[in-house]
Amino acid sequence: MNRKKLELNYKEKIKLITKFNNYYFDKNESIISDKEYDDLKKEIILLENKYEFLKSKNSPSKSVGHKPSKNFKKANHKVPMLSLANAFSEEDLINFEKKITNFLSKKEGFIISYSAEPKIDGISASLTYKNGNLVRGLSRGDGKEGEDITKNLITIKDIPKKISSKDFPEEIDIRGEVFIQNSDFENLKDKFANARNAASGSLRQKNPEDTEKIPLKFIAYTFGFEKGLNVDNQFDYLKKLGSWGFKTNPLNKLISGIKNLIQNYNEIEKKRSNLDFDIDGIVYKVNDFNLQKRLGHVANAPRWAVAHKFSSNKAVSEIKDIEIQIGRTGALTPVAKIKPINIGGVQVSNATLHNEDEIIRKDIRVGDTVTVERAGDVIPHVVSVDILKRKNTSKKFIFPKKCPCGYETIKDFNKITKKFDSVRRCPDRGFECNRIAKEKLKHFVSKDAFNIDGFGKKIVEKFCELNFIKLPQDIFKLDYGKIEKLDGWGKLSVDNLRYSVDEKKSISLERFIYSLGIRHIGLENAKLLSRYFVSFQKFKTLPKKNNYNDLLNIDGIGETQLVSIKNFFSKDINLKILSELDKVLNIKNAKAPNTRGLLKDKSFLVTGKLNNISRAEVKSLIEENSGTTVSSVSKKLNYLITGEKPTKKKIESAKALKIKIIDQDEFLKMLNKTS
Ligand code: IVH
Known about the structure:
The protein is 34% helix and 23% strand.
């Protein structure tokens, strides 16, 4: 077929699929079977993969919305919806504040005001208003892309549909929590396990009339994208929300000092059981928006906020058995199988014992009566043993020295602490160890990695057991006919799974690298690597070029990460995985966040102490303005920024290489700023 004919044929198919989508989403009607729809979609994607010139904004490979078997279209959040880091103790709060003062390069004693807001346990939503009109409402989704649930959100009385206040921004995403009050939940108890599930279920009803029947509430607390918002701190923003007609939490307070945060926390915890809504902690947000902006965020949580979770619940139970679980990095984790107990409304039958040293230290044995603690959404753990209740016949627990795969386990030596790790691990055999492979696959499909809808841990377990999958590429070559024959699977669920898998065949390089589960390469490092390599092809050819040491120029990548990356590429099985995945996936090149900034194509290194600005902040400033930071003086360096007491050697090497040496003021001038 010549190019013209191909294009015509492709356009025909796009037209057809758009028509089906419109019927499905606008009229709630399917005019073809799911199978026919999937086949058409597959044909389009195949054509696109084969002929690069075939492109359409309506292609199912592009359009995030159109799912044949799901109820809602998807749409990107203009500004991502982040999550929050957790704090459980006074120590965690002290560390949180310390990190902030360090980042801002402030002296100890610098007073930070926080907006302290009870954390309602509901479902977050983002409401877009343009010129005072509510135009769209999205669910959080994966933080970057949410579901368009506008029609359902409109049924909520607390959500203003039109705002005519003069000071209301021209455009703004108002964000908050949708929830059900406990008194209203009483009538829904038979249908849902808890108020949160009830809120989530009601919000996602296909028919908005069903949503309307449920008394959902909305409390506003933050914003995403905005144009024309004239407020400079969080507490004033909360006040503005009230004046625009939104409900805000009546228990919000402006507080400074850790001691005062804790006093407020204790007071609210006491009131907790009398409140008509479930809260699971208090959110602290640095009040000043300027400081928030400077602090920015890591991976997917802001540096300027934390969720102080309410103290955990504890209960006493008995250890029935101790099992060893293998993590994806080969770590052996002992888990106590306990007599099931209810802790704070949740049935608990497993509790982690952390590692071998912990078992020895607490002398935990099978048959022991133990106190188990469950804090927030973290895995329950064994806190202590009641020795008095121990039977005479009880024996010390001997930690196995071998992995269930038969390999001798090891304990790594930590060069920094000069001690052996507490964790025993199966030497990193990756996908060669069946047990590790299963965990790696769970990571591969998980939320921050491929995020395959409906492909959870249980399905990975099941499919591994049945030998349907062993390596990541198997996920994209599943035999759906076989799955359909399994107990509990029907045509619809198989179609849904196939859809979810196909949908994720197009992935960013950053997520892809993270999903490989290379030890020490978390979200942040995956992002750094993806920016460095830009394309999958460059990433893949790293072992061929053998220029591993260049990775050390990436600020944030050190010896530990380097060894781990080398180890990953040294295994044939991993190279095979990469080439097989390359065949079935469309791995998108990394986008530099801003390539037209003032520091474009310039690299920097700081030596010595700067004034009122931390290294971390300098690094984010450079990156925000399209520059890069490196970790040593080399020909690749353009500017050496010097502060107080710089390293002499760095200055000498920079001089020898004729690298520009600048001070803090000169650096800030490059950004049109002054100190
Ligand atoms: S602020 C960047 N404020 O907590 C800040 N979140 O783990 C993120 N939440 O998904 C949101 N009350 O569902 C914020 N006053 C509050 C909140 C709150 C509850 C929830 C929200 C979010 C989750 C973050």
